[in-house]
Amino acid sequence: MATIGLSIIVRDEAHVVLRCLESASDLIDAAVVVDTGSRDGTPDLVRTWLARHGIPGCVITEPWRDFAHNRSSALAALRRRPGIDYTLVLDADDRLVRDAGFDPAAFKAALAADVDDVEIRHGGTVYRRLQLFANRLDFRYRSVLHEYLTVPDSARTRAFAAGLAVHYGGDGARSRDPETYARDAALLEAALVEEADPGLRALHVLPRAELSGLRPGRTRDRRLSPARGPRSLGPGGVRVPAQCRPADGGAGGTDGGGARAVRARDSGGAGARRGPPRRRPRLP
Questions:
Q1: Number of other residues whose CB lies within 10 A of the CB of residue 97
Q2: Confidence of residue 147 (pLDDT cuts 50, 70, 90)
Q3: Which of 237, 194, 24, 36 is nearest to 13 (CA)?
Q4: I want to staple 264 with a disulfide (CB 3.0 to 4.6 A). Which of 4, 36, 233, 240 is the partner?
Q5: CB neighbours of 260 closer than 8 A, spacing ≥ 6?
């Protein structure tokens, strides 16, 4: 039977992190939590929970840099733990939900693919995202914001994690922080100065234009939003080698290493509509 390790990055998530951990408790065999500067006791809560449930794991404290760097750091730390076959990535405000009759042992015994799509439920929107993948392979994230998973060419097979889903909570620390958009804008501006990859530069320009005019206390002007779907759908996608793409091939650009960028709509998600928006008929 395959083993699963949980990978999370957190900061000031004491109000939600135990809910996330409890939702995964019957499925995970280890956990690596990277804390980037909590001041609300999140690390101690996680350590106590791990000890109480007898789940091997650790809380690593490291400085915040950006989403891709810190998420990739958490993945690398989990790869260093022996005996873990698969990585499951969650956010602290996520929780796992299961279909009726879901059997954790049978689910883990059936795991065989290098990458697995997991259903994401965000309000009324349902889509799929790569959240579960082989721990032995060098998966990494890219993009300082709206980060996406880069799948190594050594990943050969792809499947769907049937019976399991991630429920997006939307009540984490970022969602409650009035300075979130200002910090995001600063992060994107710094990335534009340093980033040489033209593809990543393009991903950073539009969100920066949206966020740069926001001030503390102001809400996002939804008319400016480039993506009306869940946060992770944004400008980023999922880079997947051709051999791991769905049978229909999907769309998306190809990067220099032969990996392919698969947008959310290519994974059964809710991508942007093509063509002009439909107009409602005018009533007499």
A1: 14
A2: confident
A3: 36
A4: 233
A5: 239, 240, 241, 242, 245, 250, 252, 253, 254
Confidence label for 123 from pLDDT (cuts 50, 70 and 90): confident
Give me 175's structure tokens: 């969602």
b/e code 29-51 from CB counts within 10 Å (16+ = b): bbbbbbbbebeeebbebbeebbe
Which of helix, strand or coil describes residue 46?
helix
Q: What is the CATH number of domain 1-267?
A: 3.90.550
Tell me, what's the pLDDT at 17? 97
- Tell me how crowded residue 78 is: count the other CB atoms within 10 A of its CB: 24
> For a pLDDT cut of 70, what percent of the chain falls above it?
66
Q: CA-CA distance, 131 to 118, in Å (whole number)?
A: 6
Place of tokens 């939804």: 222
Single-letter residue type at 229? G
CA nearest 254: which of 199, 195, 192? 199
Cα–Cα dist 263/29, whole Å: 31
Amino acid at 261: A
* pLDDT attached to residue 199: 63
Cα separation, 170 vs 24, in Å, equals 18
Residue 83 has pLDDT above 50, yes or no: yes
